[in-house]
Structure formats: structure tokens, C-alpha cells
Amino acid sequence: MGDYDENTAFLGQTGPYFWTTFFLLNTVFVSTGFNGLYIVFVGAAPKHHCLIPDVNLTEQWRNAIVPFMVVDGEEVRSQCSRYRLDVVRNLSAEGFIPGKDVNLTNLEQERCLDGWNYSKEIYQSNIVTEWDLVCDNQWKVPFASSTLFVGYLVGSLISGQLSDRFGRKKVVFISLGAQCVSVLLQSFSHSWRMFCVMFLFVGASQISIYISAFVLGTELLSKTMRVLFTTLGAFLFYCIGYMTLPWIAYAIRDWRTLLAVLSTTAVVYIPLWWFIPESPRWLITQGRVEEAEAIIRDAARKNKVEQQAMPPSKKFTMLDVLKSKNIRCITLMCLILWMAINIGYFGLSLNTSNLSGNPFMNCFLSAITEVPAYIVSTWLLKKCPRRVLLSSFLVIGGGVLLLIQFIPRTLQYVAVALEMTGKFGFTMAFSIVYIYTAEIYPTVLRNIGMGLCSSAARIGSITAPYVIYLGTYNKVLPYVVMGSLTIASSVVNVFLPESLNKALPETVEQMQEFYSMNLLMCCYAPGLWFSVIVYEGSQISN
């Protein structure tokens, strides 16, 4: 292929073509923010207790039939048990007064045999209230969350292959349509099983949108615009959708209506098919040089410059990632990083409904915390080595989470503030690892490499709901697990090749040429990692 950036340098670094493509592609990411985390509201468990059927009970016994228990120092009604109804009915009929004539602690308890009574203070209905996903069925909520991330895993594996075969643009728009249909069908789910199956398709289509659009933007835009797109652009527009979600959920408290409304947002993307071009880099790898030149010619016309010819190239597959020992080494480290970052990022995102305070405001705060992270990362990525940045924010995110366990229960606002600081660190790491990975892999393997890394990330995100579920046993356990994994992964990052101020590699040979020294250190001299940090620290100071 040669050096694509050099061959298209005549287009300039900015201009109408690049800015138009930049904004049109970024709007696609808004839909991923809408549909990524609605399970926070759809799967939230409102306050509940055993439903008491309409039987002959005095008002005193009706109020006393649900026992009280102490949770985190606060006396609350039991959510999963009640005093035996037949016993209470007899005591009520005989005129006994609870707590005065009868010692309630001696009464036998039973499960909520008649179902539950749910508070409608926050949610009118969701999957928890509709299918009674509480108590013995509580595990079904994190399982439903995990099916979304299993879909992410499937989509990550499939989308890379499909976009390398059929094109980035086609996969983006087919995935948008698939996401729309999946969310709409999910709103008509008649059972928890159907909800989970449709959630898998939602996840597969959503991650296909994200990866394919991300790679498409990386390959379409100039070197200057690429950094802006892969940090402030893609992630900020995702965050716009994420920040809007809690307000839509606040206005629509019924889960079926909420999902139906979210599904219709994909319709606005139909006209973009005629304005977003295919990746010329991909077209060249497929031998479709004339089509690539037509796109370059259009870009030259819009930027008012003269066009030059483009050379052809060969096709590559996923096996090419495994052929080279150096690329295998890089890929393994990237997989570990993506997995750890996703456990922390999605773990904190899914945990917002469990924090003290209003769940809609907590979700909004969690989303808005990402905005300064994306802005700061955009500025830092222009000046600082990727390895130092990524390791630093992994340590910050993980370290803050480890501190939460030492915060007294009386200082809940401090714990929330620390959690948002952790979210800031994970968001920074999330945005950095995306562009870092895209810069490491050459054009011929970029979409495949991103797909593999995203697949590993889905293993992390599939695990995230269960990490949060550990909080039912001990509230600090999720933070200890997420913090420890993140800090451990920061060490792995040190041995990845640096990509700052290097041209985006086009071929496997260019990738190996650029990073041979780093890879030798990665594979054969891991004891030198401290020297790398010292060296890159001097680069920042210079």
C-alpha cells in the first residue's frame, strides 16, 4: 500500500471534507450512548416487600406482618419474607395486639408466596417489577446485564470480519438498523428469557456500530483530525447520548415505552448513508483502487486541492495477527488491558443505581464526569507518551477505588465523590486505549486487531455485573476487585510499543520496523520496565 498518509498529504490536515466527515461520523456515537446503559433503569430494583393478600387482618397486624431487619445500621422492612399468613390471621381474629400481646420475634416466617408490593416512587414499571426479579430471582438482573456484554463479545468477533470483507460503512449502517430492530423487539418481550435474547442482539449490533465507525473515522481522517476524532469526538458524542439517557428515563418511567422511544432514534441516521464515504484505505486493501481514488478526488474537490494516484495492496485475515511472535505479544497485552479497563468502567457505570441519592441524577453525574476526561485526554494525547498516560490513569482509577473502603458510612457523599473520581480515571484510560490500539495496528490488521481487543473487553464487561453483585455480600468487595485488577494491568501497559509522533502504520512490516526495539524489551527483558518509565517521564518534561 505504501504510506497512505504521505500519499494523501496533498489533502491537508483540515478542510471542509475532513470537518464534515468528522461531525457526521460522530453523530453515530450518540446512539451507542442511548442504548448502552438503559439497564441501569430498566433493571433497577425499587423498594419492595411481600404482598399481603386481601384477607381479614386488623390494621395493626397488616402493618406488622412484614418483619423489620437492620441493614447497614438502618431498620428496614424485610424484602423477602413475612410472618406466616395463617398464623397472623388467627392471631388477628383472636384480638391479639402485635408487639404487646405477641412477641413477633417468636413467630415463624415464610417467603413472599403471594408476590411483592413495589414502590412506584421512582419507577412505574421495569423488568424487576414485571417479572419479580428479586430475592431468589435477584441473580437474573446481573445475568440480563451480562447478555448485553456477551452480545458485545459476539459483535466484536463478527464485525471485524464483516467490515474487512464488506466494508466499514456497510457494517456501520447495517448495525444501526439491527440495533433499532433489536431494541424495539426487546420492548415487546413477554418473558425475561426473551429480554435476555434480544439484549444479546442489542449488544452485538451496538459494538459493531462503535468499532466499525471508530475504525472508519480513524482511516478517513487526517493525522491531526484523527486524534481529535478518537478522543474528544467519538467519546464525547457517546457521552452526549449517555448524559441524555437519564433525562429520557426520568420522563418515561415505563420500561417498554422507554425502549420503544430509544429504538426510534436510529431513523435519523438513514440520510447519512449518502454523506459518509467508505474508507479509501480499506478499498485499496481490497484492490478497489478506482473507488478509493473517486473518494480521494471528491475530498480533493471539497478541500480545493489536486488529487494524486493511489497504489493497490493485498488482503489480510485474523490469522495474520497470530503469525508473528511480536504481534502476538502486543495483542496479548492489549487483551489484558482492555479486559481490566472494561471491568472498571462498566462496573462503575452499572453501579450508579446502587449509590445513595437519586438514581437519575447519579447516572447523569456518572456521565458528565466523562466530559472533562475526554477533553483532558484529547489535550494530553497531543503531547504525552501513550504508555505513561495510560498507566497513570489506571493507577489513579484503581487507587481511588481501593480508598473507598476506608470511608465511613456517615460520609456517603465523600464515597460518591471518590467513585466519580475513579470513573474519571477509567474514562481517561478507556479513551486512551482506543486510540493507542488503533495507532499500534497497521491498516491491514487494524479492524481485526480492534475486534480482538474489543472481544477481550467484553469478557471484562460480562464480568462487571457480577463484580457489582458482590456488593450484596460486602459493599466494599466490588471496589477492591476493580481497583486491584486495574493497578495490576497498569504494569502490563509499560511493555507496549510507544506510538506518539509516529505515522499510522499501513503494513505489518512497518509495524514491526517501528516497534522492534520495544517488542524485544517486551518479550525478553521485562525487568527493564522501570527504565521505560524514567525515559518517557523525561520526554514529558522536555
UniProtKB/TrEMBL annotation:
<feature type="transmembrane region" description="Helical">
    <location>
        <begin position="194"/>
        <end position="216"/>
    </location>
</feature>
<feature type="domain" description="Major facilitator superfamily (MFS) profile">
    <location>
        <begin position="87"/>
        <end position="501"/>
    </location>
</feature>
<dbReference type="GO" id="GO:0022857">
    <property type="term" value="F:transmembrane transporter activity"/>
</dbReference>
<keyword id="KW-1133">Transmembrane helix</keyword>
<feature type="transmembrane region" description="Helical">
    <location>
        <begin position="388"/>
        <end position="407"/>
    </location>
</feature>
<feature type="transmembrane region" description="Helical">
    <location>
        <begin position="327"/>
        <end position="347"/>
    </location>
</feature>
<dbReference type="GO" id="GO:0016020">
    <property type="term" value="C:membrane"/>
</dbReference>
<dbReference type="Pfam" id="PF00083">
    <property type="entry name" value="Sugar_tr"/>
</dbReference>
<feature type="transmembrane region" description="Helical">
    <location>
        <begin position="517"/>
        <end position="535"/>
    </location>
</feature>
<protein>
    <submittedName>
        <fullName>Solute carrier family 22 member 5</fullName>
    </submittedName>
</protein>
<dbReference type="InterPro" id="IPR020846">
    <property type="entry name" value="MFS_dom"/>
</dbReference>
<feature type="transmembrane region" description="Helical">
    <location>
        <begin position="476"/>
        <end position="496"/>
    </location>
</feature>
<feature type="transmembrane region" description="Helical">
    <location>
        <begin position="359"/>
        <end position="381"/>
    </location>
</feature>
<feature type="transmembrane region" description="Helical">
    <location>
        <begin position="258"/>
        <end position="276"/>
    </location>
</feature>
<dbReference type="InterPro" id="IPR036259">
    <property type="entry name" value="MFS_trans_sf"/>
</dbReference>
<feature type="transmembrane region" description="Helical">
    <location>
        <begin position="17"/>
        <end position="41"/>
    </location>
</feature>
<dbReference type="InterPro" id="IPR005829">
    <property type="entry name" value="Sugar_transporter_CS"/>
</dbReference>
<dbReference type="InterPro" id="IPR005828">
    <property type="entry name" value="MFS_sugar_transport-like"/>
</dbReference>
<keyword id="KW-0812">Transmembrane</keyword>
<keyword id="KW-0472">Membrane</keyword>
<feature type="transmembrane region" description="Helical">
    <location>
        <begin position="228"/>
        <end position="252"/>
    </location>
</feature>
